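Q: what sequence does this backbone want?
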């Protein structure tokens, strides 16, 4: 469990993004290439990256463009017709439009600090909180930054890379991109990692997301993210729609978990919602037991009825001790090791 992550921390292997920075893009210039051509280059470069990762290769510095540059170019292109998450708004963010999340072309950072409240394996975790979110959860605990993408300061990748360097000097074990949600900020995150360069050789990257990420964005994350610190919140689409205003939740999120499972370490977070043991927690556990029984499963009991939860009387309370005990017993029955 978390084998890659610890291998990078112990410097037995390099972080994925470092290898991507030394994998050739396959072209001396990306200028004027159509998106389709860029994706073809990406497919070929990722094949080379996978071979190198398997061989634990440590290639020399590249004279030209890297796979990481290519990914950044594709993320920038996506800003013109946004498909960073499965809402697929198609907003021309590069042209000044915003979509459902409200995030523009320039990401905004609400806070950026060494976080000691994450899972023990991650702390201290250098956590960058972006404003705006692709979900609008009625019980959001970070609603002040998640619901208003105008909060915080404009993100500067060079500055963020410098702050990651400073965090490493202070003992950070990883870079943790969250919000809100990291998805609308993929372009900024990639540029930050490029700006970090060789200094991030042994700094694992953490994608701290609701996992409503689009397929294309998931493909850009491969070879960059080492850990998916990922919420699996709802066991059915009705609850997801009622509380987070999202459609096709289970299909999209389970698809992305299956994808991430092949591409990095997963730390799954399941927040027990009051009254949702059978319809959500149990169904998620059943899916995990069937599809990835060995996964790091963090069963979380810290739900508090914040933001607009009072408008939904059935969740306007904390989970009861009985519900918590039953959730633990369910995990045991499904054979899951919970954390
Ligand atoms: S990231 Fe934002 S703008 Fe882009 S598809 Fe998702 S909600 Fe829409």
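A:
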């Amino acid at each position: 469990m978390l084998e890659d992550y610890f291998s990078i921390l112990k410097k037995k292997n390099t972080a994925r993004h470092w290898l991507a920075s030394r994998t050739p893009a396959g072209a001396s210039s990306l200028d004027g290439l159509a998106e389709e051509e860029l994706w073809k280059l990406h497919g070929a470069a990722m094949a080379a990256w996978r071979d190198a990762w398997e061989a634990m290769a440590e290639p020399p510095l590249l004279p030209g463009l890297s796979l990481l540059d290519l990914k950044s170019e594709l993320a920038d292109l996506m800003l013109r017709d946004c498909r960073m998450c499965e809402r697929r708004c198609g907003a021309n963010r590069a042209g000044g439009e915003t979509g459902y999340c409200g995030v523009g072309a320039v990401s905004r950072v609400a806070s950026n600090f060494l976080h000691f409240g994450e899972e023990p394996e991650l702390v201290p975790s250098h956590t960058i909180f972006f404003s705006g979110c692709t979900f609008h959860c009625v019980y959001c605990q970070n609603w002040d930054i998640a619901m208003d993408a105008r909060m915080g300061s404009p993100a500067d990748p060079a500055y963020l890379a410098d702050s990651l360097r400073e965090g490493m000097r202070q003992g950070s074990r990883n870079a943790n991109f969250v919000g809100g949600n990291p998805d609308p900020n993929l372009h900024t995150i990639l540029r930050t990692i490029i700006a970090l360069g060789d200094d991030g050789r042994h700094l694992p990257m953490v994608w701290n997301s609701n996992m409503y990420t689009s397929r294309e964005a998931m493909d850009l994350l491969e070879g960059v993210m080492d850990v998916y610190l990922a919420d699996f919140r709802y066991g059915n689409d009705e609850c997801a729609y009622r509380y987070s205003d999202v459609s096709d939740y289970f299909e999209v999120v389970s698809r992305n978990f299956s994808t991430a499972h092949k591409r990095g370490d997963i730390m799954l977070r399941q927040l027990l919602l009051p009254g949702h043991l059978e319809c959500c927690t149990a169904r998620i556990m059943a899916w995990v037991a069937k599809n990835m029984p060995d996964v790091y499963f963090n069963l979380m009991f810290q739900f508090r009825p914040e933001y607009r939860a009072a408008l939904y009387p059935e969740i306007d309370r904390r989970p009861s001790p009985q519900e918590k005990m039953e959730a633990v017993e369910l995990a045991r029955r499904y054979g899951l090791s919970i954390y």
